[in-house]
Amino acid sequence: MIAKLATNKVITAEQFVSLVPHDALLAIGGVLLRRKPMRLIDLLCKDNRPPLRVASFLGSLDIEWLAAHRRISSLTTGYVGMESLGPTPAWSDALEKCRATIQECSELMFVSGLRAGAAGLPFMPSRGARRSDLATEANLAPVTCPYTGQILWAMPALRPDVAILHAEQADSTGNVDRPSEQDFLWDTDLLLARAAKTVIVSVERVVPTEQLNQPVLFAHEVQHIFVAPHGAAPSELPGCYPADLAGIATYLAAVAEGELPAAALSKSFPRRS
Question: Does this model's pTM top 0.70?
Fold first, then answer.
C-alpha cells in the first residue's frame, strides 16, 4: 500500500529554476535519446546562469542542448552522441575550445559511483576500468578484496546535488509510477534518484494516488514534481511518443552548414522556443 502524504510537491517553472543552485552537480536521467527531461533542461538554458557541472549516464540531446546554450562547464559520462545520427557538434565545440571538460567513465564505473552514492559509502569496488586507461584518467585507486585478494578499482561515490528525470505519471506527493514500457536501462533512473540529494521529476501528468499502477520511486525519495506534457521531447518517451529523429537530423545538417547551434535548435524544434 502506498502511503498518502498531505504535501503537494508540484512546482512551477520559476520554482524549478530556483531549486537548482548555480554551483550544483546536476545529474540528468534518461539514456541516449530516451526519457531525457528536456523541458527542464530548456528552462535551465533560458535562465541567465553560469555553466553547470553535469553528470549524464549516456548523453545525447540533453548535453547538446546545454552546450549549445553554454550552460555546461564539466561532464561526467560514459558517452555523448546522437546514436546513429552522428556526434553532438555543440558539445564537441565546447570541448575543443576548452569551454568545458569531461571525465569519461565506463558504464560500470558510472553505475558503481551511483551505487556508492545511494548507499552512503565513499566508494564502491568496481571492475569497470579493467584493461583501459579510464582508471588512470579518473585517478582511481586500486583496492584489494580482503577475502579473495583480487585487485579492484575504488570508484568514488557519485552524489549529485540535484537529479532531474522524466516519467509518465506521478501523484502530487511524489510517488512516481513504473513506465508503461520498460525500455533499455530504464531502471538506471531509479539509482540516479537514490544517489542524489534532491530529486525533481517532470511528468506527463499528475494523477490521484489510486490511479498509480506500480510506483518505482516513492514520496520520501522525491522532493518535487513538475508537470510537463511531452516533456521528454524531442527525445523519446517509450510507450508514449518517439524521438523526433527528423528534427535532430535537420538540426545537425544546419550546424554542418555553419548555423550556430542555439539558433539551429530553435529552428529545428520551434515548439520549444
Answer: yes
